[in-house]
Specification:
The chain has a domain of 214 residues. The strands form two sheets. A two-stranded parallel ribbon has the order 1-2. Strands 3-4 form a two-stranded antiparallel ribbon. The chain is mainly alpha-helical. Helix 2 packs across helix 6, helix 7 packs antiparallel against helix 10 and helix 9 packs across helix 13. It is globular. The chain contains 15 helices and four strands. The longest helix has 30 residues.
Length: 373
């Protein structure tokens, strides 16, 4: 069988050259602050609409989930043990400069994503009075703050800590309607679970490939992500109009946007996955499959990730992203024209993805799932 990525393999070998290199704390903060198609964003929303949410249709499951949050089973998890510092001291000098850059990119992107959730949830909490939603946002902001702080400690091992206060004040914010927040954040939390648990299971089987101690924390960490997703699943199931009619098209859009962003971003870190014994493409499709299975709890439509046009389009978007980055690096009128052309082709490719047939799901009577992957 032919390899659809064969034509772009040379580009993937040199993709690290297209990254903004991180050599100082200023570089790390600038990368976290940047706003690109692939970088995690900060969001704001309609607080009055959030305040009007009614979760009474799912009251029993909601109250059970609130007890789980109150129990806070990860209150003592995000503490670095003695072995952590020793592993960092032993393993980090073994990383090549290119591998170091990919790992730093992974940490900074992950921190920015976690901190984005912390800010959004905290801002909603401060601007509403609805007791159900206010309590939920308080718990989720607590969790995401721990996650971001824990990653920042690992960045500080490289003397590259992020100034989270400055990041909150200066990074651009994107306004999303509440329903877009629900679709995007639900997917973000669930795909975060799928990513972390896939890495954890791989390194559980192959501990010799665990090149940083932070991966030992991923199992319980990703269960936080899973529960956050469950929260948004309950909110959406309690507002069934969000899952009908034209909103099915928005759900399809957000699924494709999240999958495409992950695919392109992950293939900019090929050495990171290889070091774990993973192949970026196989890893991504494993994550897509887990995420698709989970999303059947709430989404009435599912993207067909095995459709040959879906797979070809993902590779096409990757190739166009690499070409776009090269054109931007070239600069000048020619570079700008080339970049605009590649962006247009990427839009057309995404449109082709959007027009693919989707699978339909019958939503289960019991909403909540267990993190069983």
């Amino acid at each position: 069988m032919s390899n659809p990525q064969a034509a772009i393999a040379p580009e993937l070998d040199h993709v690290a050259l297209l990254m903004d290199r991180v050599e100082s704390s200023a570089d790390a903060n600038a990368k976290a602050l940047s706003s690109t198609v692939l970088s995690p964003r900060f969001y704001t929303t309609d607080f009055a609409a959030m305040d009007r949410l009614d979760i009474s249709p799912v009251r029993a499951e909601w109250d059970a989930m609130m007890k789980e949050y109150e129990g806070d089973n990860n209150h003592d998890h995000f503490q670095r043990d003695a072995a952590f510092a020793e592993e960092v001291r032993t393993l980090m000098p073994q990383l090549s400069p290119e591998m170091r850059q990919e790992f730093l990119d992974f940490l900074i992107s992950s921190l920015t994503s976690e901190f984005s959730g912390c800010i959004l949830y905290n801002e909603i909490r401060k601007n509403i009075s609805n007791p159900d939603i206010k309590a939920l946002m308080t718990y989720m902001a607590r969790d995401e703050s721990r996650h971001a702080g824990f990653i920042n400690q690992s960045l500080k091992d490289f003397d590259l800590g992020i100034d989270l206060g400055s990041l909150k004040r200066t990074k651009a914010y994107t306004y999303f309607k509440p329903k877009y927040i629900f679709y995007a954040t639900y997917l973000s939390e669930k795909i975060g679970y799928a990513r972390y648990i896939t890495i954890f299971r791989q390194l559980e089987r192959h501990p010799d490939k665990r090149f940083h101690p932070i991966f030992r924390w991923f199992e319980r960490w990703c269960n936080d992500e899973f529960r956050h997703g469950e929260s948004f699943a309950l909110i959406m199931r309690a507002q069934p109009q969000l899952l009908r009619g034209v909103n099915k098209l928005w759900i399809r859009f957000f699924i494709l946007a999240v999958y495409a962003t992950m695919y392109v971003r992950d293939h900019s870190r090929p050495m990171l996955h290889e070091a774990m014994g993973l192949h970026s493409t196989e890893y991504d499709y494993t994550v897509f499959r887990i995420t698709s299975e989970i999303c059947r709890q709430v989404f009435p439509v599912e993207v067909d990730i095995d459709h040959p046009v879906f797979r070809a389009s993902m590779d096409r978007l990757l190739a166009l992203s690499l070409a776009h980055a090269k054109a931007k690096a070239r600069g000048g009128i020619v570079g700008r024209l080339q970049a605009a052309g590649y962006a247009l082709q990427a839009t057309m490719t995404f449109g082709r993805l959007f027009l693919l047939p989707v699978k339909t799901n019958t939503l289960p009577e019991q909403i909540r799932f267990e993190p069983a992957w």
